[in-house]
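---------- Forwarded message ----------

FYI, see the Helix-turn-helix transcriptional regulator record below. Original note from H. follows.
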Amino acid sequence: MTTELERGEPDIARLASAFADPRRVRVLTALADGRALPAGRLAEEAGTAASTISNHLAVLLDHGLVAVEQQGRHRYYRLANGEVEGVLEALAALAPRTPITSLREHTRAAALRAARTCYHHLAGRAGVDLFQQFISAGWITGGDGRHHPEATRDRLSAPGKGTHYRLAPDGAAALAAWQIPAGLLSTERPLRYCVDWTEQAHHLAGPLGTAITTRLFDLGWIVRGTVPRSVRITERGHDGLAELTSVGKSS
């Protein structure tokens, strides 16, 4: 039996080959918001025929990038783990931008920049704005929410390490009243954040970022968009977020 020490270097090239086909990348992107989708829906997202999507799904399964589950007569696919979403974010930061040549492509790009999920927390302009609101309200301290490449080694589309954010007591109290679990509201532990690749600024990450995003979904303040990974702030959400942070500013 081969032990871990007897194994060679990670076969990055083999894994990377699964990302070499744009149709498979579109499948992974469609699954990156955490949903499980059937093959027919993934064929639509990939822009390929239903008769050929099974070949692409087989490649992704073989490379350990997706998992499949049976529900009745249907098979549903989801990302194998959160690390796959992280790879997609990292590749998005490194990859050259393709020219936008259609209204559909413009709509998709605009939706992802406006608001999307990243590791199950809120990203895009909405995530950056929310983080800035928390800082302005005095709920989060330790930084200004902006990306300073000259001062830190933080990279775009990656977890940040150069800024040491903390949750302030007022922020912990306000979020507790907003039904965020108390175990996530330590004022001693540093907060995790990501450098948003579209906005080039910080958005809240980690367990607290995920819990806040889950709460936003539960309240109906944000909803899933038609573009994979995109979300949309509802009218109730705009009003609720404005009221939430105004309480922090006035306290």
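H. also flagged this: Residues 112-250 form one domain.
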